[in-house]
Specification:
Elements: H1 2-5, H2 13-47, H3 50-98, H4 102-108, H5 110-152, H6 159-201, H7 203-208, H8 212-265, H9 270-312, E1 332-339, E2 350-357, E3 362-367, H10 373-378, E4 388-393, E5 396-397, H11 403-408, E6 410-413, H12 424-428, H13 437-446, H14 450-454, H15 473-485, E7 491-495, H16 503-516, E8 521-525, E9 537-542, E10 545-550, H17 552-558, H18 560-574
Parallel strand pairs: 3-8, 3-9, 6-7, 7-8
Antiparallel strand pairs: 1-2, 1-4, 4-5, 9-10
């Protein structure tokens, strides 16, 4: 795991080396101070030499200042290095997620990916900062303090041989059982984030149905689950501090008892005992810090594993060795295509789809809810890969193309219209970042969006707010259509993208398409027969299969499904 995360340290490597070096200086100063203290007591005070006391006292003060400087510098380098590492790691994870197919994202869930980018990275950053400082400070202080303590009184130092193994056994017991509990806790975080995300996305529905209390209760349950998981994990961890304090104070009591007896016997000086107690405290505090490092690593290990899962996930959709970098024309062919969302599943959403669409042809797709209309068109730009058969665009299997080149040639207006924070112009330029104002206005006129845009005081500079909250559903659909047209694609797919506009506007959009996109393959998924009846051909999907395909007149003669839909909609219009 360390090998996987090391490249994200990047240019902050120098801080990872400078911080430990400064920690070495801090530890040296701290371990020399008790030695100076014993000199003051056993030499300066014992001999009544005030000059010696002042001299050694001044040296101690200088060491304390140096220790403070070293510690402050190490803390700064640790903070800079840790924050830089976290920045690089988040960027690396985000870039990796951008390569994921829909299948990869579905496998993790959006809420879990957000938790991994935030909470898990924070845990890993804190662990790194602790390692940069304490992983050097604690072992070095332990070794130096133990050496000084042994040099003062080797017999008294035997107390450590009892305390240290006990502390090690206790920490091993805690860590071995805490890790699974922290993993479970992080999964509860995922569930809580999912609840919050769902609530915020659907806040209008929540308010429309007056379900605020239900959502509060639901969130309360997930938050309580997180609390329970945290308590269960922390129950083990909190044992560590009392255990460490018991051993520290036990060692000090033992040192005072046996050391006091040696002073009475004359085999040890008072200053030496004071220094020895200081070294005992440093040794035990070092052990406490080491234990806290290990406990922190238990939590961060669960987070690191989750981060590495994201980084090691193989994108389901990748380029071949020598991908085609250009789509020559917009023909589309489905050759015995079967598709299932679940890998290795024979429960197909689409079954044995065979159809050829000529370049420049307009195809309408009709079908009931759940007939897999959206799934079918998502196979064209390789948002998903087929389970069996193949999809060809421009005469070549879509898997032969560079994914970016293929998707640049296909403009898709999804069933769920998505706009981003920023101005109308910024959103439209998602289709073509270099589009001129004239090109933007032409696309908007074709999508019947120009007039309502100009009705806003700021026109194309109108800020849409997060998710396009400042425009209606129909306006949002027309902006998404204009954004797709700016790509000047070989294939345009409209996935029920005029459902929120009136029939007159829908007709004007289709008329503009016939004029502006005469050579572009157009695929229109619709619920209204009127939206597709003038298409070159109309495909009827039923339960993931092609029930029929033909012109409006042909389907009226031979397709019972089409006649029923057409008749019911005509009756509804008449009513």
């Amino acid at each position: 795991m360390i090998k996987k995360l090391w490249p994200f340290v990047g240019k902050y490597r120098k801080y990872l080396f400078l911080c430990p070096l400064l920690m070495v200086g801090e530890v040296l100063m701290e371990t020399l101070i008790p030695l100076m203290m014993s000199r003051i007591v056993d030499v300066g005070i014992a001999n009544g030499d005030l000059g010696y006391v002042l001299k050694i006292g001044g040296l101690m003060a200088l060491m304390a200042v140096c220790s403070l400087g070293f510690g402050a510098g190490a803390a700064r380098y640790a903070a800079v290095g840790g924050a830089g590492f976290a920045k690089n790691l988040r960027a690396g994870m985000y870039h990796k997620i951008q390569e994921y197919s829909f299948y990869n994202i579905d496998r993790f869930s959006t809420a879990s990916l957000i938790t991994r980018l935030t909470t898990d990275v924070n845990n890993t950053q804190n662990a790194l900062m602790m390692l940069m400082r304490m992983a050097v400070r604690s072992p070095m202080m332990l070794i130096l303090a133990a050496c000084f303590a042994i040099s003062i009184n080797a017999d008294l130092a035997l107390i450590f041989t009892v305390a240290l193994p006990l502390l090690g056994i206790g920490m091993y017991f805690i860590m071995s059982r805490a890790h699974p509990r922290f993993e479970a806790m992080l999964k509860k975080y995922d569930a809580m984030n999912a609840s919050v995300q769902e609530n915020l996305i659907a806040i209008r529905v929540v308010k429309a149905f007056v379900r605020e209390k239900h959502e509060k209760d639901k969130f309360g349950i997930t938050a309580d689950d997180v609390r329970a998981a945290q308590i269960k994990a922390e129950k083990l961890v909190v044992i560590g501090m009392p255990l460490m304090q018991l051993l520290v104070y036990g060692c000090i009591v033992a040192v005072l008892w046996f050391g006091g007896r040696e002073i009475i016997a004359g085999s040890m000086l008072t200053g030496e005992l004071i220094s020895f107690i200081s070294y005992v405290t440093q040794i035990m505090m070092s052990m406490m810090m080491l234990a806290m490092i290990f406990l922190n690593l238990v939590l961060s290990r669960a987070s690191v594993e989750r981060i590495v899962e994201v980084l090691e996930e193989t994108p389901d959709i990748q380029n071949g060795e020598h991908p085609r970098m250009r789509v020559e024309e917009g023909s589309v062919e489905f050759d015995h295509v079967c598709f299932s969302y679940a890998k290795e599943s024979e429960n197909y959403v689409l079954s044995d789809i065979n159809v050829s669409i000529r370049s420049g042809e307009t195809i309408g797709i009709l079908g009931g809810t759940g007939s897999a209309k959206s799934t079918l068109v998502q196979l064209i730009p390789r948002l998903y890969d087929v389970s069996k058969g193949c999809v060809r665009v421009g005469g070549h299997d879509v898997r032969e193309y560079d994914v970016t080149a293929l998707r640049d040639a296909v403009a898709m207006v999804l069933q769920k219209n998505v706009l981003f924070s920023g101005s109308i112009r910024d959103n439209l330029r998602w289709g073509n970042k270099d589009a001129t104002q004239e090109e933007i206005e032409a696309a908007c006129r074709a999508a019947q969006a120009h007039d309502f845009i100009m009705s806003f005081p700021d026109g194309y500079d109108t800020d849409l707010g997060q998710g396009g909250v400042n425009v209606s559903g129909g306006q949002k659909q027309r902006l998404c259509i204009a954004r797709a047209l700016l790509k000047k694609p070989k294939i345009v797919i409209l996935d029920d993208s005029t459902s929120a506009v009136d029939t007159a506007t829908d007709a004007r959009i289709r008329q503009a398409f016939r004029e502006e996109l005469a050579g572009t393959t157009t695929i229109i998924i619709a619920q209204r027969v009127a939206s597709v009846m003038d298409a070159d051909r109309i495909m009827i999907l039923n339960d993931g299969r092609i029930a029929d395909i033909g012109t409006h007149e042909e389907l009226m003669r031979r397709s019972e499904i089409y006649r029923e839909v057409y008749t019911s909609q005509q009756k509804g219009s008449a009513a």
